[in-house]
């Protein structure tokens, strides 16, 4: 049965415990600031930050400002665009919900980054042999019967873990019990065919910084509808040429980065 997470933004207090728990479990480095190294308040989502809490101010009609903390992470789509465009199968959606990534298969084409409608996957630009990084819904913890680290760490129940069907029912139950507290929309229930990360919000999703207008049809289906109307040989040839170009460029980038790394190593050795 497909697992999911429900994130109720009305309950989030901005403690950022989910960010710390994510970094701790995945052994991710802290972010260096002018004064110190921090785990709790990264400035951006990147290859070392799989989830991030964003502060939002929303003006109410009477002129008052409301504060909201918005969580961003991989949405784990039911029919992921990133999986459909990966030419080597480095990305896979598992039957229980998570979309996972295998480093050893990746050729660095970064199609997944371009295809994701939520702009989630990040690249290790600072490494000689980079990989793509994103939330994997703590699949290793799930295999041990545990919740994802962020859900377990949340002190207010703003992030809860369970089956997708149960969480959708819970989300609509909360809306019906407190209709004034919620916008009548479970974000992720239908967007791009549905996702395994669901959000409850108080305002229109665009007001809080979530992508709106994505439609309810899975993006891979739209892609194949277009490709089916093109001459087959042209598509195959174009795809082959593009793959060759990307692989060649990737090889050159890695070789250049390794050369710089080796040069830096010799410089340090000389200084010592």
Question: What does the model show?
Answer:
The chain has about 270 residues and is an alpha+beta fold. It has two domains: about 5-80 and about 135-215, Alpha-Beta Plaits (2-Layer Sandwich); about 230-270. It is built from eight helices and twelve strands. The chain has helices at about 15-25, 80-85, 110-115, 140-145, 150-155, 165-175, 220-225, 230-270; strands at about 5-10, 30, 35-40, 50-60, 65-70, 90-95, 100, 120-125, 130-135, 160-165, 185, 195-200. The strands form five sheets. A four-stranded mixed β-sheet has the order 10-1-12-11. It has a two-stranded antiparallel ribbon with strand order 2-3. The longest helix is centred in the last third of the chain and has 40 residues, at about 230-270. It is globular, with a radius of gyration of 21 Å. The N and C termini lie far apart (about 60 Å). Residues about 225-230 and about 265-270 have low confidence and may be disordered.
Keywords:
disordered C terminus; 12 strands; 4-stranded mixed β-sheet; single chain; 2 domains; alpha+beta; Alpha-Beta Plaits; 8 helices; 272 residues; two-stranded antiparallel ribbon
């Amino acid at each position: 049965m497909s697992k999911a997470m429900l994130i109720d933004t009305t309950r989030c207090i901005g403690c950022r415990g989910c960010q710390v728990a994510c970094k701790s479990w995945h052994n991710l480095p802290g972010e260096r600031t002018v004064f110190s190294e921090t785990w709790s308040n990264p400035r951006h989502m990147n290859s070392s930050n799989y989830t991030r809490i964003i502060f939002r101010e929303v003006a109410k009609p009477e002129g008052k400002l409301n504060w909201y903390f918005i969580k961003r992470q991989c949405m784990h789509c039911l029919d992921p665009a990133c999986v459909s465009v990966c030419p080597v199968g480095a990305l896979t959606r598992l039957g229980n919900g998570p979309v996972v990534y295998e480093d050893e298969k990746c050729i660095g084409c970064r199609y997944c980054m371009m295809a994701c409608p939520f702009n989630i996957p990040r690249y290790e630009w600072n490494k000689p042999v980079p990989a793509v990084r994103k939330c994997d819904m703590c699949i290793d913890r799930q295999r041990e019967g545990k919740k994802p680290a962020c859900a377990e760490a949340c002190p207010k129940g703003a992030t809860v873990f369970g089956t997708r069907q149960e969480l959708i029912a819970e989300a609509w139950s909360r809306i019906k019990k407190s209709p004034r507290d919620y916008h009548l929309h479970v974000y992720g229930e239908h967007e791009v065919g549905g996702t395994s990360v669901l959000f409850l919000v108080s305002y229109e999703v665009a007001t809080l910084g979530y992508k709106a207008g994505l439609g309810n049809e899975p993006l891979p289906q739209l892609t194949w509808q277009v490709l089916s109307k093109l001459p087959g040989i042209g598509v195959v040839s174009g795809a082959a040429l593009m793959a060759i170009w990307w692989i060649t460029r990737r090889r050159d980038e890695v070789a250049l980065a390794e050369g710089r790394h080796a040069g830096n190593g010799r410089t340090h050795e000389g200084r010592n």
